[in-house]
Amino acid sequence: MSTNLSNRHRDTLEKIFSHPSNHNIGWREVHSLLEAVGATVDEHDGKLKVTLGPETEVFRRPHGKDVDPQMIVDLRRMLTGAGLAPS
User: What is the pTM of this model?
Assistant: First the structure.
């Protein structure tokens, strides 16, 4: 895990990778983490375009405050590919 992350970002990363999945991961927490570790662009339609390493992914803001299970899977894949999985 990157040592440049704040404690709040590390906590969010731990929630994303926890098993079983934590269903109380807020979109604001995820958005903040992605801004800290990658290049982000807020698109006009409410989507967030994230470039992390060689990969670019577009995430749709959830209807509620928490992210859905599929987004957690996508985040795990992207963060693991960038070497940001917790130790």
Answer: 0.89
Tell me if 16 is assigned to some domain: yes
DSSP secondary structure, the chain, as one string: --TTS-HHHHHHHHHHH-SSPPS--BHHHHHHHHHHHSEEEE-TTSEEEEEETTEEEEEEPPSSSBPPHHHHHHHHHHHHHTT----
Tens of pLDDT, residue by residue, the chain (87 residues): 455 789 999 999 999 999 888 778 999 999 999 999 999 999 989 899 999 988 999 999 998 899 999 999 999 999 999 988 876
CATH of the domain at 14: 3.30.920
